[in-house]
Amino acid sequence: MAKGRDNWLLTPSAMGEVDAAAAASGIDSFGLMEKAGQAVAAAVLRLFPGGERFVVLCGPGNNGGDGYVAARALRAAGAAVAVFHLGDPAKLKGDAATARSHCPIPGEPLETWRPAEGDVIVDAIFGAGLARAVPPVVADVVRRVDEAGLPVVAVDLPSGIDGRTGAVMGAAFRAHHTVTFMTRKPGHLLLPGRLYCGTVETFDIGIPFRLVEAKDERLFVNGPQEWRTSMPTADAAAHKFRRGHLTVFSGPATATGAARLAAAAGLRAGAGLVTVVSPTEAAAANAAHLTAVMLKAVDTESDLADYLRDERRATFVLGPGFGVGPKARAFVAALAAACRHLVLDADGISAFAEDPKALFSAFADGAPRLVLTPHEGEFARLFPDLAADPALSKVDRARQAAARANAAVVYKGADSVIAAADGRAVINENAPASLATAGSGDVLAGIIGGLLAQGVPAFEAAAAGVWLHGEAACRAGASLTAETLINHIDRWH
């Protein structure tokens, strides 16, 4: 995967190892804390130049040390500053103790803080490393800040957000802005944590990036840098068969629209030919709406076997509007036996709720050629044990699901996670709220299918499809529908 500060993600534990490696290499660790605290102070002054009082809330660890540095820098800039501490500051150790000793502002116990008009809060209590519920005194301060409507600048991550999972640990500050260091953490992107961070600024405090790279967790922010080298390129010799044939299965006459949305999206994403395979009784309904997309009647497993004799028909989307039942399972089994590539969505996923192992075993061999696109409920039907495990993050669940299914998994949501069977994963961040509309998932399945048809590997097709889907939604605007969304899909060049 691509290397770079903008797309890199590290869990809090890995970032702690990077900090330790920097110190072991001879880098002055207090110098790093000094840079972090100064960066926080600069952000606070830039964002709130008219703040009447800057209230710095310092915790019992290195996040608190960053806060003491920020408080000193704010005072040096001429601002009115107050410091409140959690616990006994005399028990601070290492760099945090040094930072406090250099801070000229006497602190007061956290529980004594009371909001005042014009206060700007600098949250330096816990940061990204919290993995337990916040103590009652912090929960009470969070409540008072919320009630007073005071702006918060968070250091590393709003206190109360788990940096690994994005979970709220009892209570959490809702920051206007968050300053983090070297890389973002999963909790900056995963819900609900993302909603608490405000804008996020990543500041380079001077740790050599090779030390970050050494803690590669194969987790990145989704974007072109993760899949651009796998995308198809057009040349003068290209023709429709070289650009791949995508087949989308239609449901019955009363449920044909979803398949047509997926088919149109696949064509727009670059597949050279797209066919809607339809039950005979739904053929007229589909024919009335299809132009560049072809139509073929297929009713039985025997009909499908005939259709599969043409090996150019290599990529399929099954699920949108298809119906849940034995037909879906039989068709998937036929595609697996014929070594076809498949995007399994919606009803196609739910069809295996009673026997997920039948699906996984059908695609167990060889390089992944299955893409699963479950939302939260569908994920729980295929992977009930993973969905029910509170210790797992969304990234953990997606990775384990992908390994179990030998598939690329798109664990959908506003914080979609795309995982590969080999452990790679990306978190998507470009999807606007307007995508929460009927049919948008069918469009996504079609985009991924269109990329698969052009020879893009399963994980890269899934990750690129999710990103292109989000970009199309941004271009379509807040009033998008699934139909208008398709017109804004831009093929990757």
UniProtKB/TrEMBL annotation:
HAMAP family, per database record: NADHX_dehydratase, NADHX_epimerase
PANTHER family in alphabetical order: ATP-DEPENDENT (S)-NAD(P)H-HYDRATE DEHYDRATASE, ATP-DEPENDENT (S)-NAD(P)H-HYDRATE DEHYDRATASE FAMILY MEMBER
PROSITE patterns in the cross-refs: YJEF_C_2, YJEF_C_3, YJEF_N
Positions annotated to bind AMP: K412, G413, A414, D415, S416, G441
Highest taxon of the lineage: Bacteria
Quaternary structure and partners: Homotetramer.
CDD domains: YXKO-related
Domain YjeF N-terminal, first and last residues per copy: 15-213
Annotated binding of K(+), by residue: N63, D123, S159
Identification of the protein by name: Bifunctional NAD(P)H-hydrate repair enzyme
Binding sites annotated in the UniProt record for (6S)-NADPHX: 62-66, 127-133, 156, 258, 321, 375, 442
Organism expressing this protein natively: Ciceribacter ferrooxidans
Record keywords, A-Z: ATP-binding, Isomerase, Lyase, Metal-binding, Multifunctional enzyme, NAD, NADP, Nucleotide-binding, Potassium
Similarity field: In the C-terminal section; belongs to the NnrD/CARKD family.
Reactions the enzyme catalyzes: (6S)-NADHX + ADP = AMP + phosphate + NADH + H(+); (6R)-NADHX = (6S)-NADHX; (6S)-NADPHX + ADP = AMP + phosphate + NADPH + H(+); (6R)-NADPHX = (6S)-NADPHX
SUPFAM superfamilies noted in UniProt: Ribokinase-like, YjeF N-terminal domain-like
Gene Ontology biological-process entries: metabolite repair; nicotinamide nucleotide metabolic process
Summary of the function given for this chain in its UniProt record: Catalyzes the dehydration of the S-form of NAD(P)HX at the expense of ADP, which is converted to AMP. Together with NAD(P)HX epimerase, which catalyzes the epimerization of the S- and R-forms, the enzyme allows the repair of both epimers of NAD(P)HX, a damaged form of NAD(P)H that is a result of enzymatic or heat-dependent hydration. Catalyzes the epimerization of the S- and R-forms of NAD(P)HX, a damaged form of NAD(P)H that is a result of enzymatic or heat-dependent hydration. This is a prerequisite for the S-specific NAD(P)H-hydrate dehydratase to allow the repair of both epimers of NAD(P)HX.
InterPro entries named among the record's database cross-references: Carbohydrate_kinase_pred_CS, CARKD, Nnr, Ribokinase-like, YjeF_N_dom, YjeF_N_dom_sf
Keyword Protein transport: no
EC number assigned by the record: 4.2.1.136, 5.1.99.6
Pfam families, sorted: Carb_kinase, YjeF_N
Listed cofactors: K(+); Mg(2+)
NCBIfam families given in the database record: yjeF_cterm (TIGR00196), yjeF_nterm (TIGR00197)
The keyword Oxidoreductase is assigned to this record: no
